[in-house]
User: What shape does this take?
Amino acid sequence: MRLISSNESDAYAGARAIAPVAVVIGVVAIVFGVLARGAGLTAPAAIVMSATTFAGSAQFAAVSVLASSGTVATAATTAALLMSRYLLMGSAVAQKLPGGPIRRFALAQLVVDETWGVAFARRQFSERRLFGAGLVLYATHVGCTAVGAIGGMRIVDPTVFGLDAAFPALFVVLLKPHLANSSGRAAAVFGATAALLLTPFAPAGIPLLGAAATSLLDLPAGDAS
Amino acid sequence: MTRGWQVVVCVGVVTMLTKGVGPLWLGRRSLPPLLRRAVVRLAPALFAGLIATQVFARDHGIMLDARAGGLAVAIIAAAAGAPPIAILAAAVATTATVRRAVR
Assistant: This one.
């Protein structure tokens, strides 16, 4: 690991700090492995997705669209829109990450909400803590996806077991923190309403784009963000 | 290439670029405030849209079936502060039970 030149204890501190989070992420990754198989992905595809897309929400969104017989374009677009958040984090990341372009590009891949939090612990950014925490979380993410995808039962018809309810329940979990402020609550109401209004008339994929488009509504009232 | 692999490749490329583009090209520039606020609203809007379409839509119709029961239980469990896995398990079990009862 050439990235750590000295003071490796910082990377270990990052790894230790992320350990409790890694347990939760591990369980979520196992669930992803199982559900990805249920949605028709092969085990290698599910594992490669976790290795290349280190962002749980985008993965679940893409696979859930496939599972509800959406198109490849809809699945990819929905995931891409969810990833746009990282553009916002990008400028903050840019100011902190040291080194040349390849090193910064690689380190940026390890950034997710949890590792970013650990990197900023004690109010001071540490690249080594980001690296330590990121590596542990990434290995857990990919490893546990493999456990779920290979070890998980082969699901013939997910609907029989009520597994089609797993994706919406997961999105409830992901949505909850956004409902803490009025802007997030309004966005959720607009998103759900637009999607449902478009469902009877619009071709596949458009309802989700409609939900995304409502985020462009910049209402002066209740914008608490 | 199967549908699954197409999605894996597309989403993987987009993710790596989205994460990498900031540190490489955005530099110290930041997005305009209007766009910034829209991006913040995008996640709740999309999560809610995904829930709505995957629970209430079938083909081009709106329908109320066992999936709604699972969603209701998931919302109650989440509001009560249950851990994610418990929320998932409760929703799946409820949907399966309601589906069997209706059949």
